[in-house]
From TrEMBL:
Residues 7-274 form the OBG-type G domain. InterPro entries: Beta-grasp_dom_sf, G_OBG, GTP-bd, P-loop_NTPase, TGS, TGS-like, YGR210-like_G4. SUPFAM superfamilies: P-loop containing nucleoside triphosphate hydrolases (SSF52540), TGS-like (SSF81271). This is Ribosome-binding ATPase YchF GTP1/OBG family. One of its GO terms (cellular component) is cytoplasm. The keyword Membrane does not apply. Gene3D superfamilies: 1.10.8.470, 3.10.20.30, P-loop containing nucleotide triphosphate hydrolases. Keywords: Nucleotide-binding. Belongs to the RelA/SpoT family. It comes from Methanohalarchaeum thermophilum. One of its GO terms (molecular function) is GTP binding. It comes from the Archaea. The lineage of its organism: Archaea, Methanobacteriati, Methanobacteriota, Methanonatronarchaeia, Methanonatronarchaeales.
């Protein structure tokens, strides 16, 4: 991921799986975070949030968040969500995945695949009798689409790749990286993928089609990891959820519609509810109708209690934390009181890859701060830390630079 770039999650799924519902439920919450200035970026782009325990509690200070929000000690750190439209099964065989689809796919760091776990819609999203369609079929097809798209890019130029490696002594890693630079796949991902396959990188002329496909699949896993959101849990059989979970990890059982209903009830002042939590509280029971009470009870019993929440927030957080391996770090300019130049306490929260060093954090803040980086301090202990220190989730760090 490039320095300074906001983490971008692509939302994909066949028509009718509940993608728009998931998108709306993740990006239009009316809880205080909604005042965030760029919650709606465009028709299909929005800001969603990852929760983290705000260090203000541990440090016993009052925070003034700038690039994020703090609600009752929970910091909501922004990520971008893009609703990737136009997924059609088998497209790669014919005219190829739609241009718009590919363009948005290129930008995404990871994907959440919203699957209709109830089996009530077929591969194209048309309604069928409940449970008639096997939802696990939907999973394989998306992975296959992306894999074959990546394979196609390599296969088209395979002859020249082989020549460059075997006749001109170029490295296979460099040659493959060149083919994928336009679609934003990092050399590091390709290196990991090639090593994983254990194919002979000096003799690509010996590779057959399935070897190239194997490499494409490894690159897919590294560069576009997928989380399955097994949606419509309220009308899905437990067996379907189990089948999907068995076929793909990670899978999160999700009730996107329930999440939206809870947020609406919160907006109307009927309940207290914060997205991601596994319970809500009815504010004034006399204000809601018997029907509404029944609906809320249904959500509590069949979704919140059973799956520990609606799964929308969990899907986003698992994608960022487990698939993208990210941590939250809090940079400050004055380590004695954890403030920036404006005197705001713990103003910013940044997402960084696990294994990031203080200099990576500097790069995320500003290229000039990175260029003129001198050293870093752990604000919690007040001690200077070495340049190769691996930052931890929740670290509060001061970067000293001559900028
Ligand atoms: N029972 C149930 N229905 C849901 C859930 N999430 C979405 N739906 C319904 O499924 C239908 C399709 O939802 P959308 O969010 O429009 O689906 P989509 O995937 O965006 O579909 P396209 O816009 O056609 O691509 C709607 O009637 C939703 O109300 C859920 O968790 N449970």
């Amino acid at each position: 991921m490039e320095a300074g770039k906001v983490t971008l999650i692509g939302l994909v799924g066949k028509p009718n799986a509940g993608k728009s519902t998931f998108f709306k439920a993740s990006t239009s919450s009316d809880v205080e975070i909604a005042n965030y200035p760029f919650t709606t970026i465009g028709s299909n782009r929005g800001v969603a949030f990852i929760r983290d325990e705000c260090p203000h509690k541990e440090l016993d200070v009052k925070c003034d968040p700038n690039n994020s929000r703090c609600i009752n000690g929970t910091r909501f750190v922004p990520v971008q969500l893009i609703d990737v439209a136009g997924l059609v099964p088998g497209a790669y065989k014919g005219k190829g995945l739609g241009n718009e689809f590919l363009d948005q796919l290129r930008q995404a760091d990871a994907l959440i695949h919203v699957v209709d776990a109830s089996g009530s819609t077929d591969l194209k999203g048309n309604p069928v009798e409940s449970d008639e369609h096997d939802p696990t079929e939907d999973i394989g097809f998306l992975e296959n689409e992306i894999k074959m798209w990546l394979y196609g890019i390599l296969n088209e130029k395979w002859g020249s790749i082989v020549k460059k490696v075997e006749n001109e002594n170029n490295k296979l890693l460099d040659e493959i990286s060149n083919k994928y630079t336009g679609i934003g796949i990092k050399k590091r991902s390709i290196k990991l993928s090639l090593n994983k396959t254990q194919l002979d990188q000096e003799k690509p002329s010996k590779w057959n089609k399935s070897d190239i496909v194997e490499v494409a699949e490894e690159i897919r896993k590294q560069s576009k990891p997928i989380l399955i959101s097994a949606n419509k849990v309220d009308i899905s059989s437990e067996e379907n959820i189990k089948k999907i979970t068995k076929k793909h990890q990670p899978t999160v059982p999700t009730g996107a519609k329930a999440e939206l209903i809870l947020q609406k009830a919160e907006k109307k002042g009927y309940i207290n509810y914060v997205p991601g939590e596994s319970s809500f509280e009815i504010i004034e029971p006399s204000k809601i109708t018997e029907e509404q009470k029944k609906g809320l009870d249904f959500i509590k019993e069949n979704i919140l209690d059973k799956y520990d929440g609606t799964g929308v927030q969990k899907s986003l957080e698992k994608t960022v934390r487990d698939l993208l391996n990210m941590i939250v770090v809090y940079p400050v300019e004055d380590e004695s009181d954890y403030t920036n130049k404006q005197g705001e306490t713990l103003p910013d929260a940044y997402l960084l890859k696990k294994g990031s060093t203080p200099k990576d954090l500097a790069r995320k803040i500003h290229s000039e701060i990175a260029d003129k980086y001198l050293y870093a301090k752990d604000a919690k202990s007040g001690r200077r830390i070495s340049d190769d220190t691996e930052l931890k989730n929740g670290d509060v760090i001061k970067i000293v630079s001559s900028a």
